Amino acid sequence: MVDITDMNVVLDEVRDALTAEDWDRAVALVEALRPPDQADVFEELHPDSQSELLPRLNPEDSADILEELSDEDAIEIAARLEADDLTRIVNEMEPDEVADLLGDMTPDQAAETLSSIEDADEILPLLEYSDDTAGGLMTSAEVVLHKDITTAEAIAHLKTTVPEAGIAYYLYVVNDDMRLVGVVSLLEIIVAPSETCIDEIMNPEVISVFANTDQEATARLMARYDLLALPVVDEKYQLLGVITHDDMVAVLEEEETEDIFRLGGVPDERVSTTVAPGIALRARLPWLVLNMGTAMLSAVVLSLFEETIAQLAVLAVFFPIVAGVSGSAGTQTLTVTVRGLALGEVSPRDGIGMLTREIMIGLANGIVLGMLIAVIALVWKGSPILGFVVGLATFINLIAAGFAGVLVPLGMSIIKLDPALASPVLVSTLTDTLGYLIYLSIATILLLRFI
Amino acid sequence: MVDITDMNVVLDEVRDALTAEDWDRAVALVEALRPPDQADVFEELHPDSQSELLPRLNPEDSADILEELSDEDAIEIAARLEADDLTRIVNEMEPDEVADLLGDMTPDQAAETLSSIEDADEILPLLEYSDDTAGGLMTSAEVVLHKDITTAEAIAHLKTTVPEAGIAYYLYVVNDDMRLVGVVSLLEIIVAPSETCIDEIMNPEVISVFANTDQEATARLMARYDLLALPVVDEKYQLLGVITHDDMVAVLEEEETEDIFRLGGVPDERVSTTVAPGIALRARLPWLVLNMGTAMLSAVVLSLFEETIAQLAVLAVFFPIVAGVSGSAGTQTLTVTVRGLALGEVSPRDGIGMLTREIMIGLANGIVLGMLIAVIALVWKGSPILGFVVGLATFINLIAAGFAGVLVPLGMSIIKLDPALASPVLVSTLTDTLGYLIYLSIATILLLRFI
Question: From the CA atom positions of chain B, what is the Rg in Å?
Fold first, then answer.
C-alpha cells in the first residue's frame, strides 16, 4: 500500500526548497513522486521555477511531466527551455506525445526540435494525422513479430529490444508484406512449448482501425471489446501503429466532459474550472446571448397576449410552473436520449419506439402533474376555471416535452451534429415557447369568456 | 481488420434459425460473435428462445453472455435455467461475476448454485463486499509469486497454472506472511536473466487499495496512474484479490452516466433508454413533482407582485429573459464546478478562488447581457425606464447565478452529498426565485413611480 501523499504538503516543501535555491532537495522531492503527481506539483509552480527545475530533473522524469501536462502548458514550458535541454527531454518521451507537442509548436520551433530528435523517423509519420483520430492517438509499435518465427525466437527478440513494460502485453503479428495477420499475448508466448510457431498460437481475428477513425469511436471500440491496445492499419492493412490503454481512458474522459459541458450549456470542453476567467467568458457568453435570443421568442409570444395578462394578472403567477415543469421534463427525456445515443444503446432507427415510449411517459406525467397543479390553483386562487386552464396546459406541455426531448437529439444525430451540443437550447426553446403559447391560448379562449 | 458486423443482420438470421428450430445454425451464428456482440443479440431474443438457446451454446460462450448482460437480465435468465445447466455455465464465469450474480439471487437459489460450483472457496470471500466498493469489484488473484523465487521458477509456475490471458500482465509478489510486497510485469520476468530473483526485479512501490474503498475512487486511481490492474489488500496488507481493467472502464462509464443523468434531472442511473416506461416514470416523476414544488416558490413571489403586473402587463413579457438567462448562466457555472469536483481538479478548499472567478465572469456577463436586453426593451417597447429595469435586473441576476452555481455544489460536497444530484434543482430554484424577486422589486419601486 503506497500512501497517496497530500500533494499540498509536497508542494510547500518544493516551494521552500526553490526559495532557498536548494536544487538538489527540490529535485529529490519531485523525483520521488509518480508522474501524474509530479505534473500536479509542477503546474502549481511559478513559470521561472518551472524553467529552472525541469532541466535539473533526470530526463525520464522531465519527459513524464511534459507528457502529463495539458497541451497548452507543455508547449509554453517547452518554448522557455534551452534547445539542448528540450532535446534531451523530448528524446525520452513517447513518440505519440512528441508528435502532439510538435503539432502544437510553431513550424520553425517544430522543425528545429525535430532535427535534433534521435527517433525522428518514428515520429514523422505520426505528424500526418489529426489529433482527434485514431492516427493522432497511436504511437509507433515497438515490437512486431513475424508470423513464421517460433516462441523461443520471439522471446530472444524481446530480450534484445526490451520494449517499455507498459506497451508489450499484446504483440502484433505481421506477414511478409507487413500486413497485420494476428495478435498474441506475452503469456501465450511464455506458456507455449518453445519451438511453437507464432502462427499457431496467435489469434487471427485481430480487431484494428484505420488511421482516420474518429477518436471517440476508437475509444468506445476498445472499451467495448476490453482491449488494452488497438492496432492502427492503412488501407492495405499494414500496421501503422498502436493505441495504448491510457489514450483510451483519456479520450473517454475528454468525451464525457465534452458531453456534460455541452448539456450544461458550456459548448467548449477546454473550459474547465482551471482556465482563466477571460477564456471561460469567451466560451460561455456567446451561449448566453444565444439563450437570450431564444428567450426573446417566448417574450414575443407573451407580448401577443399582453392584453389577456393585463385583464387577468394571476395568469402570470403560473408562468414558472407552465414553463419550468415542461422544461424539466424535456431535459430529462433529452438527457436519456443523448446518453443512449452516446453509449450506442439506441440509434436513430429506434426512433419510433423511443418516441412512443416518451409520449407514454409524457401522458402519465401530464395526468399526474396536470391534476396536481389544477388542484393547487383551485385551492390557492379559488377559481375552478383557472385550475382547469393551468392543469390542461401542463398536461399538453408535458406531452410536447416528450416529443421535443426525443425528436431534437435524434434529428441532430441524423444530420450528423452532436446531439449534446445544440439540443438543450433547442428543447428548452420549444418547451418554453410552446408552453406559453398553449397556456395563454387556452386562457384567452376560456377565461376571458367565463370570468 | 475485423468487420464490425451489423448486429441487426445477425439478429434476423438467428431469429430465422430459431423459428425453423435449427438449433445448430443458431448456435453457430452466436458462437461466431465476440462476447459483447453475443450479449447484444441475445438480449433482443424472446425469453423462451433465450432459455432454449443458452444451454445449447458451449459453456464458455454462455458464461461470457451472462457476464455481459445487465445484472437484472442475467438474474432473470439464470432463474429460468435448469440447475445443472446453470452450474455448467457458472463454472466458466469469472469469480467476481459469479459473486455479483449470487448476490442478486434469492438466498435459496444462491445457496443451491454455490453448493454445486467447483471454485466455491474462491467465490465465498468475494460475497462479503458491497457491490460499489473495491472488494465488490475484485476477482481472486490467479497467480501470486513469492518474492524469493527466480524468474525461471516463475515461468515454470505460469506454465503449470496457465491463467487467463487477460489477467496476468502484472504479477503480484508476496512475502512469507502473504503480505503484498511488490509487482512485476510479465515482460520484466521474460527479459531478466533466468536465475534472477523476483525480489530484485519487482517494483516494491505497488499501489493498492483496501476492500472498502469506494468504487469511483478506485477507478479514478487506476485511471490516474494508468494501472491495468489494482491489488486489493486487507488491513494487514495481505492480498485479497485484483481489480482488472474492464471493471475500471465499466465503473467510470457508470459514474459518468450517473453524473450526466443527475445533472439532467434523472436521479436514477438505472433509467436508460432501454428500461420499461413504467420504471422510467417512477424514477422521473418524483423529480418533476419536486420541480413543481420549487416552481411554486417562484409562483408565490409572483403572486406578491400581482398588482404590479396587473398595472403593467408588459413586465410579464420579460419573464422568460429574466429567469431564463440567469438560469442558463447558473447551469453553466454549476456544470463546470460539478465536473471539476468529480475529476478532482478542484476541491472545496479552492472555494474562494472559484467564487471570485465566477463572480468576475458573472459581472462581465451581466454588463454585456444587461446592456443588450436594456437596448432591446427600449427599442421594442419604447420605454427607457423599462429598459433600465430589465437591464439592471439581468445584471444583478447574473452575478447571483455565479454565486449560486459555485456555492451550492461546494456546499453539497462539504456535507458529503453528490453535487450532481441536488444542485441543479437548488440552483434553478435560486436563480428563478431570486430573478423574479429582484426584477419585480426594482419594477415596483421605479416603474410605478415614473410611468
Answer: 30
Domain limits of chain B?
Answer: 7-128, 144-254, 277-450
pLDDT in tens, B342-351: 887 788 888 8
Cβ–Cβ under 8 Å, residues A236 and A135: no
In whole angstroms, what is the distance from residue A272 CA to residue A257 CA?
Answer: 9
What does the pLDDT look like over B51-91, one tens digit per residue?
889 999 999 999 999 888 888 888 888 888 888 888 899 88
What's the rounded Cα separation, in Å, for the pair B436 and B320?
Answer: 10
Q: Which residue of B has its CA nearest to A372?
A: B289
User: What confidence tier does A2 reach under pLDDT thresholds 50, 70, 90?
Assistant: very low
Q: How far is A277 from chain B (nearest CA, A)?
A: 6
Give B301 to chain A, closest Cα distance, Å: 8
Say if the Cβ atoms of A165 and B187 lie within 8 Å.
yes
Task: For domain A144-254, say whether CATH 3.10.580.10 is its number.
Answer: yes
Q: pTM of this prediction?
A: 0.80
Q: Which residue of B208, B320, B361 is in closest CB contact with A281?
A: B361
Q: Identify from A1, A207, A213, A358 which residue to disrupt to test chain B contact, counting B C-beta atoms within 10 A and taking the largest count.
A: A1
- pLDDT-based confidence at A166, cuts 50/70/90? low
The predicted-structure confidence for B377-435, as pLDDT tens digits, reads as follows 999 998 888 999 999 999 999 999 999 999 999 998 898 888 887 788 888 888 989 99
Which residue among B2, B205, B257 places its CB closest to the CB of A205? B2
Q: What is the arithmetic mean of pLDDT over A380-384?
A: 90
Rg, C-alpha atoms of chain A: 30
Where do the H-state alpha helices sit in A32-70?
A: 35-43, 47-53, 59-68
Q: Do A432 and B320 touch (CB under 8 A)?
A: yes
B351, closest residue in chain A (CA to CA): A273
Stretch B189-203: mean pLDDT = 89
CATH of A7-128, one of 3.40.50.620, 1.10.10.10, 1.25.60.10, 1.10.760.10: 1.25.60.10
For residue B186, list chain A residues with Cβ-Cβ distance below 8 A: 169, 186-187, 190
Tell me if B323 sits within 8 A of B436, measured CB to CB. yes
A170 to chain B: closest CA residue: B169
Residues of A with CB below 8 A from B409's CB? none
Topology adopted by domain B277-450? Tetracycline Repressor; domain 2 (1.10.357)
pLDDT of residue B368: 93
**SS3 call for A105:** coil
Query: Maximum Cα–Cα distance for chain B, whole Å?
Result: 96
